[in-house]
Amino acid sequence: MNERRRNLEQLPSLSRNPKKPDEGRGSPVSGNSARHATLERPTIQELQKTPIGVRGLDEVTGGGLPKGRSTLVCGGAGSGKTLLAMEFLTRGATQFDEPGVFVSFEESADELATNFVSLGHNLNALVKQKRLVLDFIRVEPDEMKETGAYNLDGLFIRLEHAIDSIGAKRVTLDSIETLFSGMVDTAILRAELHRLFQWLKTKGVTAIITAERGRNSLTRHGLEEYVADCVILLDNRVTGQTATRRLQIVKYRGANHGTNEYPFLIDESGISVMPLTSTGMDFESSTERGSSGIPRLDAMMGGQGYYRGSSVLVSGTAGTGKTSVAAHFAQGTVERGGSCLWFAFEESSSQIIRNMRSVGIDLAPAVQNGKLRLHTESPTAFGLEMHLATMHKMVDEFKPTTVILDPISNFSAIGSEVEIKAMLTRLVGFFKSRQITSLFTNLVTGGTPENATEAGVSSLMDTWLLLQDIESGAERNRVLQLLKSRGMAHSSQTREFLMTDHGVELRDVYVGKSGALLTGSSLMVQRAQEEAQSIVREEQADLLKRELELKRQAVEAQIAGLQAEFEIEHTKTLRAIAQDKSRTEVLVDDRAQMAEYRQADTSDAELTTQRELGGP
Amino acid sequence: MTSRSKGSFSEAAAAQDEERWVLRLYVAGQTPKSLAAFDNLKQLCEERLKGRYTIEVIDLLKNPQLAKDDQILAIPTVVRKLPPPVRRIIGDLSDTERVLVGLDLRQRDLIGATAL
After folding, report:
1. What is the CATH number of the domain that holds B52?
2. Which domain does B88 fall in, by range?
3. Do A147 and B31 make contact, defined as CB atoms within 8 angstroms?
4. What is the pLDDT of residues B6-39, one digit of tens each?
5. A309: alpha, beta or left? (left if phi > 0; alpha if psi -120 to 50)
6. Beta-ladder partners of B82
7. Ranges of CATH 3.40.50.300 domains, chain A
């Protein structure tokens, strides 16, 4: 008896049921009613949270589910309730060292284990490691013949036994509503459920209760009345033949939470929620620049290319070379040592590689060494939200430095302009928050390209390249314009856009006399003309030079003549001087001879003269 | 036709008379409901199955692991282990009529009435 009482105390309020008047009469546990007060939790303490471990969901809930409380997960058939509940346990067991108990009212333990193998969970291994208990509670309406007052202590005891056997911190009841099909007396059931959720709180376990979505209420049987701390609504909605899974935190008592509907994915790695709508605008703006992969285009943007983390729109009509611009960008990224994730919505990856090879861009090596990932997906494969979610997930996995979406115009098949804009807004925000430079190509059909490019889309973009066809002289030529490029000085000139066998080349365009752009062969004609003119000009200059030379030569000849004359004069003069001198000498000699002859005494002066004049 | 079926009923009734009944009562501690259920069950068995029944009382507070085997949710639950098939009823067995139907004891009453 004593032992029993002690046991009962471990199960607070086990036999106490305030709604049943027949209780308490001679009850051995009637003294327990005083326990009611201990059920009240301290309210001052800040709400603690238990991380779920599901990608994105912890962000949306601001850290997880309310710790030690129960969360209601409701949704229609196939909305992913069981999976979410199971992931809560498996992630708890593997990532947070919190063992869990999965009480299933619908599937047996074997069925559960089999179902979850395809989602990458080895439940049997977790069970063996004592980190998970799978308990199947079968409810068969025929066997629940009610013959008087009862309660659900059997369930409580089983649950407690399971929790205590592995020290569980997490519990899932999937789906307890099944009880409603087995029991006629729903008044008892409701009272018992109320007691169950209170009891779970006192056990200190964080629980997920799943329930089927009701027609006019959150759950078919109004479970939200009992589990009121946190309610998560799952939804699988089909719009335009494509289904999108969405998740919404309807209620989270005592905590801030995102109220939007968030798309979520179920794939081989389980659930991932995409909290994209919550992306703020407070991302860093980098001043770092990265090449566009086309040197001349970089030159148009001040020589450095796009800002890191900026968004680039390349729009143009069919066949104007949008994908080639993207391919250059991809290759430029890889050459700089970055990695690029290319979402192709039109061509297969092998087709892109082949086509780009024809213009001299070989993407294959980058793909092989894992620097470039080409992800091809049909736009109509699933809804916009799912595309968003897939891209979000892939970016998270691959962690690229640049992303290409080629082309975004294909999304118009699965969404209205407003929806596409909303999606792109989120995408651009997401890329910016990750400092990923993104390039979007956009096919423009009909009308003038400026008008046809959804103004909404272009306003999201930091840089807008417009590719155009210019038809003149029975031919089409491509031109590129840099319509805008936020935060940098950029060329406003149109460039001719040539696709050569060594990639895209940008050239200056000629503006003809009439003001029209000259491209292609008309450009060549213009160039030939200009060349001819320049030859003529050069010849004229030559002629002038030659004339000048002649003049110079004539002048020089004249100078030479004058100089020659002068020389002659000079020589003549010198000779005359010399003759004069010799005549004087002879005179002196004669005088000396005469003196000698007369034997006159010679004066010093005379002798000196004699010597000076070259005497002997 | 009627006589033949009567005969087979009598035979069945006779066979049933020989059967041993094994009833398992699941409780969780000595709660009023559990005690009431045990009293009601005992009384019923004494009345109708005297000398050939066994009542096993299983206290899940002592042996919680046993709850799993018989898929016990509600307390008290009575499981008829023998004779087959297995039948189960829940509650404190105060509604005798439902207990008789639930445990398949009612048929015996009818047969007894026709036999007389």
Report:
1. 3.40.30.10
2. 2-115
3. no
4. 556 666 655 556 678 888 999 988 888 888 888 8
5. left
6. B22
7. 46-278, 289-508
Subunit contact B32:A139, Cβ cutoff 8 A: no
User: If DSSP codes are grouped into helix, strand and coil, which group holds residue A247?
Assistant: strand
Of A3, A154, A158, the CB nearest to B77: A154
Q: How much is the average pLDDT of A415-444?
A: 84
The topology (CATH level 3) of A289-508 is Rossmann fold (3.40.50)
Closest-approach residue (CA) in chain B for A192 = B74
Flag whether residue B32 sits within 8 Å of chain A, measured between CB atoms.
yes
How far is C-alpha A140 from the chain's CA centre?
53
pLDDT digits (tens, 9 = 90+) for B63-109: 888 888 888 888 888 888 888 888 888 888 888 888 888 888 765 55
For the segment A254-299, what is each residue's pLDDT rounded down to a tens digit? Answer: 777 777 788 788 877 788 887 655 455 667 777 888 888 888 888 8
Q: How many CB atoms lie within 10 A of CB B13?
A: 16
Please check whether residue B88 touches A, CB under 8 A.
yes
A152 and B72 within 8 Å at the Cβ level: the answer is: no
Q: Which of B24, B44, B59 is nearest to A154 (CA)?
A: B59
Interchain pair A135, B94: CB under 8 A: no
Number of domains in chain B: 1
How confident is the model over A395-414, as pLDDT tens digits?
988 999 999 998 888 888 77
Of the two residues A417 and A15, the one the predictor is more confident about is A417
Question: What is the 3-state secondary structure of A284-311?
Answer: CCCCCEECCCCHHHHHHCCCCCEECCCE
What fold, for A46-278? Rossmann fold (3.40.50)
Check: pTM over 0.80? Answer yes or no: no
Cα B31 to Cα B17: distance, rounded to the nearest angstrom: 33
